[in-house]
Write a structure and sequence with these properties.
HEAT repeat-containing protein; 2 domains; 4-stranded antiparallel beta sheet; alpha+beta
């Protein structure tokens, strides 16, 4: 979808200001940023686990960033999953691989403000799933959500999960939250 978003950005006169292919452990991903103004950037991120992407608008002018995202929502109508669809995919997934993909996709599209249903679905997967790789992906995915309500959950996982990899991932996400000022 990067090409489609690039065409939209170019049609609005937004130049590419950053572009990189990412090697997330063994997978690949892509990141592209367009300069809307000096104070707002439209960002595109591809995830290698779910083969999905997300767009965000960030910057000093939050009103403009919100307008940019609304415009992208309009321009990409029918291609963006709703919050309800993302949540249902987590809640309905029985296959661990499908659940892992759904968690990443849902993290990309989670509401900006705290949502109890999303939190409960992620917490259940991160704390309780029998497959440690699903727990690891659930923990990894909350880095995109950035709700302070996740901090106690991550601290508990860091202290008590049975797998070192999951405990280490929780520490990494907690550190990212700290760097972000949360």
């Amino acid at each position: 979808m990067a090409d489609e978003i690039n065409e939209l950005a170019q049609s609005y006169g937004w130049p590419v200001v950053y572009e990189a292919d990412r090697n997330f452990d063994r997978g690949k991903g892509r990141e592209v940023n367009w300069g809307v103004t000096r104070d707002v950037v439209l960002g595109y991120l591809e995830g290698h686990i779910s083969n999905d992407c997300c767009i965000v608008a960030v910057g000093k002018d939050s009103g403009l960033a919100e307008r940019v995202i609304r415009q992208m929502d309009d321009d990409l109508e029918g291609e963006i999953e709703s919050v309800a669809e993302l949540l249902a995919a987590i809640q309905d997934a029985e296959d661990p691989r499908h659940l892992a993909q759904s968690l990443v996709r849902a993290a990309f599209g989670a509401p900006r403000e705290f949502d109890q249903e999303f939190f409960t679905a992620f917490a259940k997967a991160a704390r309780e799933h029998g497959e440690y790789r699903v727990r690891d992906i659930a923990v990894s995915s909350v880095v995109y959500i950035e709700w302070p309500e996740f901090k106690p959950l991550l601290e508990g996982i860091q202290a008590h999960d049975s797998e070192e990899q999951v405990r280490a991932r929780a520490a990494i996400v907690l550190n990212a939250y700290a760097v972000a000022g949360m």
